[in-house]
Specification:
Length: about 280
């Protein structure tokens, strides 16, 4: 597992991601930095995603958000299960603009990912709904957490499987401090810089108190934006349920994070079909 582009942004970038997924990327980064060989991933089987789109009722488009979310991902990231947010936006725009599409399903199976671009896409989705009048339905069959839930929350309604993991609203940033290890190894760094904060987030030393305040302020700003956007579409949700905790689908329903429980996308198709007119009729 390489996550080439994602690993390059691992340290010091804000993430909206569930902890287990971030730990997976950290493990991959550790292997790479230590020089250990990592097996080339097999090309993912996209047949299931294609089947979902092919099986969708006439007039309904399915757009998938599957895997760890990133922006401007490379081929290797995509092969490792990354989800390029720019591609998601392109597919959503095409679906909303198509005269043959009456409704759109956003099929989310993601633990989240990089925060960059997610709030902007959320706003674009809400705007597209308002401009076109088309309905958007999100479905979470396995996992719709952090940035994955952020995008799902832009829909008119959210459906989830009872055992799906949902929510995990918030952000985090990791700063790696190698100063003690470097000292034990006899490694010294001589830094020449202009600007007090030019090397903020450097791994060769601990963050200063002033730097910690700057980084925490950025996290607070992004976290509050996340919560505010969710509440703009789901005002009945208690803010206490938007503090980073993941919920099972049944718990998410009780907390107001989803609207209905379904066994899977086929059941959602069955529920939506009567509400979506047959085009050309």
């Amino acid at each position: 597992m390489k996550f080439t582009h994602l690993i390059s942004r691992l340290i010091g970038s804000p993430w909206c991601i569930r902890e287990h997924a971030l730990q997976t990327i950290l493990a991959a980064a550790s292997l790479r930095l230590s020089g250990q060989a990592m097996p080339m991933p097999e090309e993912p089987d996209d047949m299931e995603d294609e089947d979902q789109a092919d099986d969708a009722p006439h007039g309904i488009a399915v757009v998938n958000v599957h895997g760890i979310i990133g922006k401007k991902l490379g081929m290797m990231d995509m092969m490792c299960g990354g989800c390029d947010i720019d591609m998601v936006e392109e597919e959503l725009c095409a679906a909303f603009e198509s005269p043959g599409i009456e409704a759109v399903i956003l099929a989310v199976d993601s633990p989240g990912g990089i925060a960059s671009g997610v709030p902007e896409l959320f706003e674009k989705i809400v705007a597209m709904r308002a401009t076109t009048g088309k309905k958007l339905y999100s479905i979470i069959e396995q996992e719709g957490c952090s940035a994955g839930y952020y995008l799902a929350a832009a829909a008119d309604r959210i459906y989830a499987a009872p055992t799906a993991m949902v929510g995990n609203v918030g952000m985090k940033m990791v700063i790696q401090d190698n100063s003690e290890a470097n000292a034990k190894a006899g490694i010294k760094f001589h830094v020449f810089k202009s600007g007090e904060f030019k090397d903020i987030g450097a791994r060769y030393r601990s963050p200063t108190e002033a730097e910690a305040k700057i980084l925490q302020a950025q996290g607070d700003l992004l976290g509050e934006k996340f919560r505010s956007d969710v509440l703009s579409q789901r005002p009945a949700v208690n803010r206490a349920n938007l503090e980073g905790q993941p919920f099972l689908g049944e718990q998410a329903l009780a907390a107001g994070l989803v609207d209905e429980l379904v066994s899977g996308i086929d059941e959602l198709y069955a529920r939506l079909t009567p509400a979506v007119p047959v085009l050309g009729s």
